[in-house]
Amino acid sequence: MARTIVVTGAASGIGQALAALLTRRGEHVVAVDVTSGDVVADLSTRRGRDDAVEGVLDETGGRIDAVVANAGLALPVRETVAVNHFGAVDLLTGLRPSLAASSRAPRAVVTSSMATLLPVHAPLVEACLAGDEDRALALAAELEAAGPQAAATIYPSSKRALSRWVRRVAPLPVWAGAGIPLNAVAPGVVRTPMTAAMTATADGRAALDAVVPMPLGGYLEAGQVAALLAWLVSAENTHVCGQTVHVDGGSDVLLRGDDVWSWHDADPGTLSPRTGVATTHVPVAT
Ligand SMILES: NC(=O)c1ccc[n+]([C@@H]2O[C@H](COP(=O)([O-])OP(=O)(O)OC[C@H]3O[C@@H](n4cnc5c(N)ncnc54)[C@H](O)[C@@H]3O)[C@@H](O)[C@H]2O)c1
User: Fold this and answer.
1) CATH number of the domain to which 46 belongs
2) Atom nearest to 114 CA in ligand 1
3) Does residue 282 register a pLDDT over 70?
4) How many domains are there within the chain?
5) Which residues are known to be catalytic?
6) What distance in Å separates the CA atoms of residue 40 and residue 278, rounded to the nearest whole number?
7) What is the structure's pLDDT at 184?
8) Is the CB of 111 under 6 A from ligand 1?
């Protein structure tokens, strides 16, 4: 029996490719976008997000099995924070009770970005994580006014906050405890309308390649990201929890290197600052 899967940003690019893939696989897709779809709503405003949640519940009778919060903007403006962070978080939070009621493999995923690895504006990330949209938008407006270099931190900040929110809430009783895997994907450069102007010229490609090295496979097509999103919301995904899964041709490993475990080694035997769980190695019989 078809599962009902909500996809935001379904009118273009990755979301459109995902909606087509899921439909081909026999799933029932509810397309949400500001331009067209089953539910037309503007995720950049609180009112628009309430309309989106209400529209999805009307459209489905409250029976949904997965949500893909994918809509996004990559412009160096405050709306980018509103859509990318608060649009995703508020939609997922609003639809979570319906997901929890699903008996058909409830799942949730957001589209983050490899841009989480680029320079961010820490106070903006913290304001997002604190759920303080007014402060986040005010900070983004300041960055916008401060010029292109400062404004360039807006998009990475919105995605860093989103990936951190996923890590923060995914193991909680309301997500993991309710049997709902919540994860993120982090694409490298994907050929969609979002990047078309940049990938169209040699100068644009050189600028992209300087910050997003992709030794494996070059630029992505939208369908290649859609395939990963589709797996993360499938019944096959039973235990991936709170991860930001990079589908970036190698950007993450090149930028962060091979040792992302140093926090553990610094003082073996200490407790995790967040959970109090011992981080000491447990000897494993081989
Ligand atoms: N293209 C890339 O290289 C790339 C890389 C990493 C991450 N991403 C992320 O992937 C996601 C999809 O991007 P894409 O490349 O398919 O771009 P796209 O521009 O082709 O599609 C984005 C979709 O989001 C919708 N959207 C924008 N603002 C909205 C709003 N206020 N309310 C509702 N819908 C809104 C747009 O109408 C559009 O249909 C975004 O979150 C983006 O940040 C893209």
Assistant:
1) 3.40.50.720
2) 6
3) no
4) 1
5) 155
6) 48
7) 99
8) yes
